[in-house]
Design a protein that fits this description.
Blueprint: H1 3-11, H2 16-35, H3 50-63, H4 74-78, H5 81-93, H6 99-114, H7 125-135, E1 141-145, H8 150-155, E2 161-165, H9 171-180, E3 183-185, E4 191-196, E5 203-207, E6 213-217, H10 218-229, E7 230-239, H11 249-257, E8 261-266, E9 279-285, E10 294-298, H12 318-329, E11 337-340, H13 342-347, H14 361-367, E12 372-374, H15 375-378, E13 379-383, E14 396-401, E15 419-423, H16 426-433, E16 441-444, E17 452-454, E18 463-465, E19 469-474, H17 482-489, H18 492-501, H19 512-516, E20 519-521, H20 525-556
Parallel strand pairs: 1-2, 1-4, 2-3, 4-7, 8-10, 14-18
Antiparallel strand pairs: 5-6, 7-9, 8-9, 10-11, 12-20, 13-19, 14-15, 16-17, 16-19
Length: 562
Amino acid sequence: MFSPLIDTLRDQGLKSHVTVQHASLLSAWAWCYRHRPELSLPDPKDRPGITVAMQAMKKALEAAGWSSSVAPDYLEMNCTGRTVQDLQDMVATLEWPDARGVVTALANLAEQALGQQAGQSQLPLELAKLMVKLGRTSGHRVVAAYPMSDVPMALADEAAERTYASTSHSALSDALVLISGASVVTETPSADVVLSVPPMGDKIPDISVAGKRRNRRSEAVGLQKAWERSTGRAVVLMLAGTLFDMVEYELRENLVRDNAIDMIIQLPGQTLPGTATPPVLVVLDHQREPESPVTFIDASRLVADSTKHRIKPPHQSPEFWEDLNQLVTHPSAGSVFRQASQSEIERNDFDLSVNRYVMGDATQKMADLDNARPLQDVAEIVRAQTLKSEQEEGSTLFIEVGGRDIDTSGQVRIEEPPKELHVAGRARKRAEQQQLQPGDVLLISKGSIGRVALVGSECGDNWVAGQVFLILRTKERGLMQPEYLYRYLASPMVQQYLEEIASGAGIPILKANDIKNLPVPVPSQEEQKRVLDVHQQIMDEYDAIRVHQAKIEELSQQHWAL
């Protein structure tokens, strides 16, 4: 039914986004003529001219508080007369069983046409449906905040009243406002339910309580506004940074202490078309029972490991959305769902990252280790800082060790040419604090997290760790040998554990408290000796590999060397 209209517009050479614009407006004309007679739109069977119909729709939008962004005469100016007549005939035949049907058709069209285009972000239809479901919008006054909330607003067809709060709009938004009978405002008003999709990744200047200027995440501002403007529930789609960023610590603490957070759902990467960054859904509720737990769901685990390199991303997988809706409706204990009390969240320093509460396999295994002690009990932990090189009189030369200087065997081998730093003044003391010693264990805590190295006897007396590293120095050699600590941290179990607890949506980081409290089993010296024997065997194998590689290089140069 819908395809001939789309094909006709495309045959006129219209680009994808222009096709979506005008297909949306023509569909709104067809729906509103039949189901919103109060708008007094012309009958498409009378062929009144598309410009006349668009002008009537523009007046209807202005009455709702909106101004259309599309010129009413665009199609008649850019299409042949025959095409304009055909389009009107098609509009006269368009019909859907209900408003949800036409909204679904338009959302699917926009998702397919605009999903991968930069600057044309479109919320996946199934995600929009889930937001409406979580908002429990039936019979309530609903506000949809920000441009990408237009589809959830239109899908909330059982709401008592709908308002679309946005300072920018598209022709699709125009159509959805007309179809849903929503009013339009530029500032988010109070309502029973707020459905919000704040702009993601922007920084908003803000004046803190202490009077200092700071930059806040746009998603955090949207989350705070959703809580303040709602009287019932709020559903906010955002990036995960706000859940752990120290700048938003106060916001998280207030929401937890106010018993505001009902549910947090971690969605997998590629849920939003055109980006691999995984978003989260945060559900707030003003009517929660006192001391109710917060529900955490890791929906990324609904995507099986075997399908991580799948052809279809999650937003195109009906099975994924079916499983997630089932879990939201009937949550049950398992590997993807867990409830946490306010006291537990407080012990986690109000970090709301889902992986803090829904434990992975390695995290659970680490929690069950016998005779384990926090890393800070068995090793001194030094976080390396950035050192600035300045050629000054009396400066000291240091060689900075970076990630590039860790070879495949986990040993530090300075790559030529070395990174030299000339450090003087106060910076020299900082450099001395992160000066390396044989037996130090290096752990990368940002970016390539978990990569670990053991500093050997060849360590120079002026080597310092680069700022990506944590320096781990065993406190008592009689208690724990450096080789044992290195081999433990390099083990598959710990590597998986570090991946599971890492924070950060783009660049993963390991938080200081996580490293301090990392469980380390402390076996007997006899058991450690067995681990050290294995470590030496592994090093011997790497030495043999280097000999073989050198021989291969020598043989390959025999006949055609430069």
